[in-house]
Amino acid sequence: xxxNRAPSHFIYLILLALFWGSAFMFVKISLDSITPxxxxxxxxxxxxxxxxxxxxxxxxxxxxxxxxxxxxxxxGVTGTILPFLLVNWSIQYVHSSLAAICMSxxxxxxxxxxxxxxxxxxxxxxxxxxxxxxxxGVGSLFYGTMTELDSSPIMLLALSGLVATAxxxxxxxxxxxxxxxxxxxxxxxxxxxxxxxxxxxxxLIFEQPWALNPTAPAxxxxxILGIVATGIASLILFHLTHLAGATFVSYNSYLIPLVGMxxxxxxxxxxxxxxxxxxxxxxxxxxxxxxxxxxxAASEPTTKK
Length: 305
Hints:
Layout: H1 7-30, H2 36-57, H3 66-90, H4 96-102, H5 106-117, H6 125-146, H7 153-177, H8 184-206, H9 216-244, H10 246-250, H11 252-267, H12 275-291
Helix pairs in contact: 1-4, 1-9, 1-11, 2-3, 2-8, 2-9, 3-7, 3-8, 4-6, 4-11, 5-7, 6-12, 7-9, 8-9
Protein backbone atom coordinates (compact mmCIF):
# COMPACT_ATOMS: atom_id res chain seq x y z
CA UNK A 1 0.00 0.00 0.00
CA UNK A 2 1.28 3.47 -0.91
CA UNK A 3 1.33 5.89 2.01
CA ASN A 4 0.88 9.61 1.42
CA ARG A 5 1.46 11.95 4.32
CA ALA A 6 -1.32 14.43 5.04
CA PRO A 7 -0.21 18.08 5.28
CA SER A 8 -1.47 18.12 8.86
CA HIS A 9 1.17 15.52 9.80
CA PHE A 10 3.95 17.91 8.81
CA ILE A 11 2.24 20.84 10.55
CA TYR A 12 2.13 18.85 13.78
CA LEU A 13 5.75 17.82 13.28
CA ILE A 14 6.89 21.43 12.87
CA LEU A 15 4.91 22.54 15.93
CA LEU A 16 6.57 19.85 18.04
CA ALA A 17 9.99 20.97 16.82
CA LEU A 18 9.21 24.61 17.65
CA PHE A 19 7.88 23.80 21.12
CA TRP A 20 10.63 21.35 22.04
CA GLY A 21 13.47 23.15 20.27
CA SER A 22 12.85 26.39 22.16
CA ALA A 23 12.40 24.49 25.45
CA PHE A 24 16.17 24.15 25.92
CA MET A 25 16.52 27.93 25.97
CA PHE A 26 13.79 28.25 28.60
CA VAL A 27 15.39 25.52 30.71
CA LYS A 28 18.70 27.42 30.56
CA ILE A 29 16.96 30.59 31.72
CA SER A 30 15.16 28.76 34.53
CA LEU A 31 18.39 27.24 35.83
CA ASP A 32 19.64 30.69 36.83
CA SER A 33 17.47 30.57 39.95
CA ILE A 34 15.64 27.20 40.06
CA THR A 35 17.13 23.74 40.62
CA PRO A 36 16.88 20.93 37.99
CA UNK A 37 14.47 18.57 39.77
CA UNK A 38 12.16 21.40 40.78
CA UNK A 39 12.06 22.64 37.17
CA UNK A 40 11.04 19.17 36.03
CA UNK A 41 8.38 18.83 38.73
CA UNK A 42 6.83 22.25 38.05
CA UNK A 43 6.95 21.77 34.30
CA UNK A 44 5.21 18.40 34.48
CA UNK A 45 2.63 19.58 37.04
CA UNK A 46 1.65 22.63 34.96
CA UNK A 47 1.42 20.47 31.85
CA UNK A 48 -0.79 17.98 33.71
CA UNK A 49 -3.16 20.75 34.81
CA UNK A 50 -3.44 22.18 31.29
CA UNK A 51 -4.13 18.87 29.58
CA UNK A 52 -6.48 17.56 32.27
CA UNK A 53 -8.58 20.74 32.22
CA UNK A 54 -8.84 20.52 28.41
CA UNK A 55 -9.82 16.85 28.65
CA UNK A 56 -12.53 17.48 31.25
CA UNK A 57 -13.90 20.47 29.31
CA UNK A 58 -14.21 18.26 26.23
CA UNK A 59 -15.86 15.46 28.16
CA UNK A 60 -12.91 13.10 27.78
CA UNK A 61 -12.64 10.58 30.60
CA UNK A 62 -9.40 9.51 32.22
CA UNK A 63 -8.42 5.83 31.98
CA UNK A 64 -10.46 3.57 34.25
CA UNK A 65 -8.46 0.38 34.10
CA UNK A 66 -5.41 -0.05 36.32
CA UNK A 67 -3.46 -1.54 33.41
CA UNK A 68 -3.94 1.67 31.40
CA UNK A 69 -2.65 3.78 34.29
CA UNK A 70 0.36 1.51 34.61
CA UNK A 71 1.11 1.91 30.89
CA UNK A 72 0.75 5.69 31.09
CA UNK A 73 2.98 5.80 34.16
CA UNK A 74 5.69 3.86 32.33
CA UNK A 75 5.46 6.32 29.42
CA GLY A 76 5.52 9.19 31.91
CA VAL A 77 8.72 7.92 33.51
CA THR A 78 10.50 7.23 30.21
CA GLY A 79 9.14 10.18 28.24
CA THR A 80 9.03 12.99 30.79
CA ILE A 81 10.62 12.33 34.17
CA LEU A 82 13.94 10.80 33.09
CA PRO A 83 14.47 13.03 30.01
CA PHE A 84 13.58 16.22 31.88
CA LEU A 85 15.88 15.40 34.79
CA LEU A 86 18.76 14.48 32.49
CA VAL A 87 18.36 17.56 30.29
CA ASN A 88 17.97 19.93 33.24
CA TRP A 89 21.11 18.62 34.88
CA SER A 90 23.21 18.39 31.71
CA ILE A 91 22.30 21.81 30.35
CA GLN A 92 23.92 23.43 33.38
CA TYR A 93 27.29 22.61 31.78
CA VAL A 94 26.62 22.97 28.01
CA HIS A 95 25.02 25.44 25.63
CA SER A 96 21.29 25.00 25.11
CA SER A 97 22.04 24.61 21.39
CA LEU A 98 24.26 21.59 22.05
CA ALA A 99 21.47 19.97 24.07
CA ALA A 100 19.14 20.48 21.11
CA ILE A 101 21.70 18.96 18.76
CA CYS A 102 21.98 15.81 20.85
CA MET A 103 18.23 15.23 20.52
CA SER A 104 18.84 14.47 16.86
CA UNK A 105 20.04 11.05 17.94
CA UNK A 106 16.40 10.18 18.63
CA UNK A 107 15.52 8.90 15.12
CA UNK A 108 18.36 6.36 15.15
CA UNK A 109 17.20 4.99 18.50
CA UNK A 110 13.55 5.11 17.42
CA UNK A 111 14.10 3.23 14.17
CA UNK A 112 15.99 0.51 16.01
CA UNK A 113 13.43 0.20 18.81
CA UNK A 114 10.44 0.38 16.44
CA UNK A 115 11.95 -2.36 14.28
CA UNK A 116 11.91 -4.77 17.22
CA UNK A 117 8.91 -3.49 19.19
CA UNK A 118 6.33 -2.81 16.47
CA UNK A 119 4.98 -4.84 13.56
CA UNK A 120 4.55 -2.04 11.00
CA UNK A 121 7.71 0.12 11.32
CA UNK A 122 10.49 -2.13 10.10
CA UNK A 123 13.83 -1.04 8.68
CA UNK A 124 13.91 -0.19 4.98
CA UNK A 125 16.65 0.97 2.66
CA UNK A 126 14.91 4.31 2.09
CA UNK A 127 14.59 5.00 5.80
CA UNK A 128 18.21 4.07 6.36
CA UNK A 129 19.41 6.39 3.60
CA UNK A 130 17.31 9.21 5.01
CA UNK A 131 18.73 8.66 8.49
CA UNK A 132 22.28 8.68 7.09
CA UNK A 133 21.67 12.03 5.38
CA UNK A 134 20.17 13.39 8.55
CA UNK A 135 23.09 12.30 10.65
CA UNK A 136 25.57 13.85 8.23
CA GLY A 137 23.89 17.16 8.96
CA VAL A 138 23.62 16.49 12.67
CA GLY A 139 27.26 15.36 12.80
CA SER A 140 28.45 18.61 11.28
CA LEU A 141 26.37 20.58 13.76
CA PHE A 142 27.72 18.51 16.64
CA TYR A 143 31.32 18.88 15.48
CA GLY A 144 30.98 22.61 14.95
CA THR A 145 29.70 23.07 18.48
CA MET A 146 32.11 20.70 20.22
CA THR A 147 35.22 22.36 18.75
CA GLU A 148 34.45 25.41 20.87
CA LEU A 149 34.17 23.46 24.13
CA ASP A 150 36.60 21.55 26.32
CA SER A 151 36.42 17.80 26.92
CA SER A 152 36.46 17.81 30.73
CA PRO A 153 34.91 14.87 32.63
CA ILE A 154 31.86 16.90 33.64
CA MET A 155 31.35 17.93 30.01
CA LEU A 156 31.52 14.32 28.82
CA LEU A 157 29.12 13.29 31.59
CA ALA A 158 26.70 16.01 30.53
CA LEU A 159 26.89 14.83 26.91
CA SER A 160 26.26 11.26 28.05
CA GLY A 161 23.18 12.50 29.89
CA LEU A 162 21.91 14.16 26.72
CA VAL A 163 22.48 11.01 24.67
CA ALA A 164 20.54 9.03 27.29
CA THR A 165 17.78 11.63 27.03
CA ALA A 166 17.45 10.98 23.30
CA UNK A 167 17.19 7.25 23.99
CA UNK A 168 14.40 7.67 26.56
CA UNK A 169 12.46 9.96 24.23
CA UNK A 170 12.73 7.27 21.55
CA UNK A 171 11.58 4.53 23.89
CA UNK A 172 8.62 6.62 25.03
CA UNK A 173 7.63 7.32 21.42
CA UNK A 174 7.45 3.61 20.66
CA UNK A 175 5.58 2.85 23.88
CA UNK A 176 2.98 5.52 23.10
CA UNK A 177 1.96 3.67 19.97
CA UNK A 178 1.51 0.46 21.96
CA UNK A 179 -0.89 2.04 24.47
CA UNK A 180 -4.27 0.33 24.64
CA UNK A 181 -6.07 3.64 25.12
CA UNK A 182 -5.69 5.59 21.84
CA UNK A 183 -7.34 8.83 22.98
CA UNK A 184 -4.54 11.45 23.06
CA UNK A 185 -6.20 13.66 25.70
CA UNK A 186 -6.94 10.77 28.03
CA UNK A 187 -3.50 9.19 27.77
CA UNK A 188 -1.58 12.48 27.90
CA UNK A 189 -3.49 13.51 31.03
CA UNK A 190 -2.87 10.16 32.74
CA UNK A 191 0.81 10.23 31.79
CA UNK A 192 1.41 13.73 33.17
CA UNK A 193 -0.67 13.14 36.31
CA UNK A 194 1.35 10.02 37.09
CA UNK A 195 4.62 11.85 36.43
CA UNK A 196 3.52 14.73 38.67
CA UNK A 197 2.75 12.40 41.57
CA UNK A 198 6.28 11.05 41.29
CA UNK A 199 8.31 14.23 40.72
CA UNK A 200 6.65 16.59 43.22
CA UNK A 201 7.58 14.44 46.27
CA UNK A 202 11.12 13.95 44.90
CA UNK A 203 11.60 17.70 44.49
CA LEU A 204 10.28 18.37 48.00
CA ILE A 205 12.60 15.78 49.50
CA PHE A 206 15.83 16.46 47.62
CA GLU A 207 15.78 20.16 46.67
CA GLN A 208 13.62 22.08 49.16
CA PRO A 209 12.04 24.36 46.52
CA TRP A 210 10.46 26.59 49.17
CA ALA A 211 13.93 27.99 49.88
CA LEU A 212 14.45 29.13 46.28
CA ASN A 213 14.17 32.75 45.14
CA PRO A 214 13.21 32.48 41.45
CA THR A 215 13.56 35.47 39.14
CA ALA A 216 10.74 36.74 36.94
CA PRO A 217 12.33 35.37 33.72
CA ALA A 218 12.67 31.96 35.40
CA UNK A 219 9.01 31.95 36.42
CA UNK A 220 7.88 32.94 32.92
CA UNK A 221 10.11 30.24 31.45
CA UNK A 222 8.61 27.60 33.74
CA UNK A 223 5.10 28.61 32.67
CA ILE A 224 6.03 28.34 28.98
CA LEU A 225 7.72 24.99 29.57
CA GLY A 226 4.68 23.64 31.41
CA ILE A 227 1.87 25.01 29.25
CA VAL A 228 3.39 24.85 25.78
CA ALA A 229 6.42 22.55 25.73
CA THR A 230 4.87 19.94 28.03
CA GLY A 231 1.08 20.19 28.07
CA ILE A 232 0.21 21.13 24.49
CA ALA A 233 3.24 19.31 23.07
CA SER A 234 2.26 16.07 24.85
CA LEU A 235 -1.19 16.26 23.30
CA ILE A 236 0.31 16.73 19.83
CA LEU A 237 2.83 13.93 20.47
CA PHE A 238 0.19 11.35 21.38
CA HIS A 239 -2.12 12.39 18.54
CA LEU A 240 0.59 12.44 15.88
CA THR A 241 2.13 9.14 17.03
CA HIS A 242 -1.19 7.36 16.58
CA LEU A 243 -1.70 9.04 13.19
CA ALA A 244 1.75 8.69 11.66
CA GLY A 245 3.87 6.32 13.78
CA ALA A 246 6.80 6.67 16.16
CA THR A 247 9.44 6.86 13.43
CA PHE A 248 7.77 9.79 11.66
CA VAL A 249 7.36 11.65 14.97
CA SER A 250 11.06 11.12 15.71
CA TYR A 251 11.96 13.17 12.61
CA ASN A 252 11.13 16.31 14.59
CA SER A 253 14.48 15.68 16.25
CA TYR A 254 16.14 16.70 12.98
CA LEU A 255 14.42 20.09 13.24
CA ILE A 256 14.93 20.60 16.97
CA PRO A 257 18.66 21.54 16.61
CA LEU A 258 17.78 24.27 14.14
CA VAL A 259 15.14 25.74 16.44
CA GLY A 260 17.33 25.29 19.51
CA MET A 261 20.35 26.98 17.95
CA UNK A 262 18.28 29.83 16.56
CA UNK A 263 16.73 30.45 19.99
CA UNK A 264 20.12 30.24 21.72
CA UNK A 265 21.69 32.59 19.21
CA UNK A 266 18.93 35.20 19.33
CA UNK A 267 18.18 35.28 23.05
CA UNK A 268 21.21 33.72 24.79
CA UNK A 269 24.01 34.97 22.52
CA UNK A 270 25.20 31.43 21.81
CA UNK A 271 27.41 30.85 18.74
CA UNK A 272 25.94 30.39 15.27
CA UNK A 273 28.06 29.35 12.28
CA UNK A 274 27.57 29.61 8.53
CA UNK A 275 28.01 25.82 8.26
CA UNK A 276 24.66 25.43 10.01
CA UNK A 277 22.92 26.31 6.73
CA UNK A 278 24.67 23.44 4.95
CA UNK A 279 23.84 21.16 7.86
CA UNK A 280 20.18 22.18 7.68
CA UNK A 281 20.11 21.21 4.00
CA UNK A 282 21.34 17.71 4.81
CA UNK A 283 18.87 17.39 7.67
CA UNK A 284 15.88 18.39 5.56
CA UNK A 285 17.07 16.11 2.75
CA UNK A 286 17.24 13.27 5.26
CA UNK A 287 13.63 13.78 6.32
CA UNK A 288 12.52 13.89 2.69
CA UNK A 289 14.39 10.73 1.71
CA UNK A 290 13.22 8.79 4.77
CA UNK A 291 9.59 9.70 4.07
CA UNK A 292 9.65 9.42 0.27
CA UNK A 293 7.29 6.86 -1.16
CA UNK A 294 7.32 5.51 -4.70
CA UNK A 295 4.47 7.07 -6.59
CA UNK A 296 2.20 4.90 -8.64
CA ALA A 297 0.68 6.52 -11.69
CA ALA A 298 -3.09 6.59 -11.69
CA SER A 299 -3.10 5.11 -15.16
CA GLU A 300 -1.04 2.06 -14.20
CA PRO A 301 -3.00 -1.11 -15.05
CA THR A 302 -3.94 -3.51 -12.27
CA THR A 303 -3.24 -7.21 -12.76
CA LYS A 304 -5.76 -9.61 -11.31
CA LYS A 305 -4.99 -13.20 -10.48
